[in-house]
Amino acid sequence: MATRTNASTPFDGYRRTGAGGHDELLVRVGPGAPAGEYLRRYWQPVHIAGELGPRPKRIRIMGEDLVLFRDGSGRVGLVHRNCPHRRASLEFGVCEERGIRCCYHGWLFDVDGAVLETPGQPDGVEERVRAATRLGAYPVKEYKGLIFAYLGPPERRPEFPVYDTLELPGHVMTPYKAPFRCNWLQVVDAILDPLHTAFLHSRMSREQFSRGFGEIGEMKFYERPMGFLGAATRRVGDNVWVRVNELVLPNYTQAGAAFAADGARRRYFGRTAFARWVVPVDDRETVCLAWAIFGERGDPESYNTPEGPELIEQGEVFDRTYDERQRFPADAEATEGMGPITEHDRENLVPSDKGVRMYRRRLRELVGALRDGAEPEHVSSIWPNPVPTYGGDTVLRLPASGGDDRALLRGAGMAVMERQFAAEALKGEARDARVVAALKDLEADGLPA
User: Fold this and answer.
1) How many CA atoms lie within 13 Å of 352's alpha carbon, on the beta-carbon side?
2) pLDDT tens digits for 216-251?
3) Could you report the per-residue pLDDT of 101-130, keeping only the tens digit for each?
4) Contact 261, 420 (CB under 8 A)
5) For the chain, what is the largest distance between any 2 Cα atoms, rounded to a whole number of angstroms?
6) Domains 53-149 and 164-445 share a fold
7) Cα 72 to Cα 95: distance, rounded to the nearest angstrom
8) Domains of the chain, residue spans
9) Fold entry, domain 164-445
10) N or C: which terminus of the chain has fewer CB atoms within 10 Å of its end residue's CB?
11) Helices (H), 319-402
């Protein structure tokens, strides 16, 4: 454990050596671990559908080695890696019309884990094997190019949630994945840290998105029934830019546009440009499985290129030399640089980290409650599909009044969010129309003195 010393002592590195501690309740994600059990209560993306070919694929999710496959009838299966007969790996199996066949002795399994055939056995054996043996399997769902799985108790399987930003008409959604060589918590924390965009993505190396991101602005955090919002309100000339980052429990994140919004042009209730889940591979690796969203209310379609989603995700392409990563660090460098699992007891959290504090506190409560027997809620039990969300950008013309502009920014940010909250019960075009009209009225009337 690290030794704490007086902060006024110079050159005291000797007394600050030693390993720090982790938030063990939240960082361990394998089967049986408290956070792992909590995350397994929710649908999680596990693969990009277009990258699943004719052969089985070994994957690792939440500390478990699994095999993903598509059988000859088009069904997707997600099963335990090892055959229940003699433990051969099904990653070397053969995909057939009715399931997957083990390469070692030809046992055939359905996508639900049922034993269909046990070749070479005496009469009556197959029936006994079917009754006594089963391959571990999980339910899956394909949705807009991603494959999702539910890895929790079968009797607790929730409805599959559909978020409103994923059903916007006229938008193109491109699946992508972003690997991180570190624990999931330090990746997901960043969505509730709006301040980092002004430095990591703008002031420290180069403008990775737009000049407006370099403005620090005013921050306010909101705790919602199933998540958190971090609203950063910036001044860009005569405009006020309210950018909303969103985290829906436990690990679904949204934010505004990376390239369509810069604070310089009006934008009324612009929506997210990426929708992503921060999925643990194990305690020391993470993968974000996501869509980049292109269209009128997302990012420009000109960024729908092979490298476009990578730029939207972190401002830089993923595959870079070490020299490039040092000169132009992005999210991977910031989070991986903390180490495989960050030392939480060595952090020095400050007021701008309020969103991170709020999320971790709620997460500890939920994980601890599940450990004690209380099942967590789901968005599908609060809102019918499509679930209303908030990640996005609003840019209004609200010139500085000559007074306290920081107070004006705070007031503008809260006023924008209040108008969005007021329309939460509406759906689709009705909600959009109500919010946009209210924002235009706010812009025309100005803020109350």
Assistant:
1) 13
2) 899 999 999 999 999 999 999 999 999 999 999 999
3) 999 999 999 999 999 999 999 999 999 999
4) no
5) 91
6) no
7) 7
8) 53-149, 164-445
9) Naphthalene 1,2-dioxygenase Alpha Subunit; Chain A, domain 1 (3.90.380)
10) C
11) 322-327, 331-336, 354-371
What is the model's pLDDT at position 210?
80
Cα(387)–Cα(380) distance, rounded to whole angstroms?
A: 8
- Closest C-alpha to 277, from 114, 95, 150, 419: 150
Of 179, 201, 174, nearest in space to 305 by CA: 174
Secondary structure (H, E, C), 157-171: CCCCCCEHHHHCCCC
Q: How many other β-carbons are positioned within 10 Å of the β-carbon of residue 141?
A: 13
Q: Is the pLDDT of residue 1 over 50?
A: no
Is residue 55 left, alpha or beta, with left meaning phi > 0 and alpha meaning psi from -120 to 50? beta
Predicted confidence (pLDDT) at residue 3 exceeds the cutoff of 80: no
Alpha carbon separation from 223 to 7, 63, 186, 230, 247 (Å, rounded): 33, 30, 19, 9, 10
pLDDT number for residue 5: 58
- When pLDDT is averaged across residues 199-221 and rounded to a whole number, the result is 88
Q: How many CB atoms lie within 10 A of CB 30?
A: 14
- From the list 86, 282, 97, the residue with the least C-alpha distance to 183 is 282
What would the CATH number be for the domain defined by 53-149? 2.102.10.10
Output Rg (C-alpha) for the chain, integer angstroms.
24
> 93-108: per-residue pLDDT in tens?
999 999 999 999 999 9
CA distances from 272 to 223, 394, 418 (A): 19, 11, 19
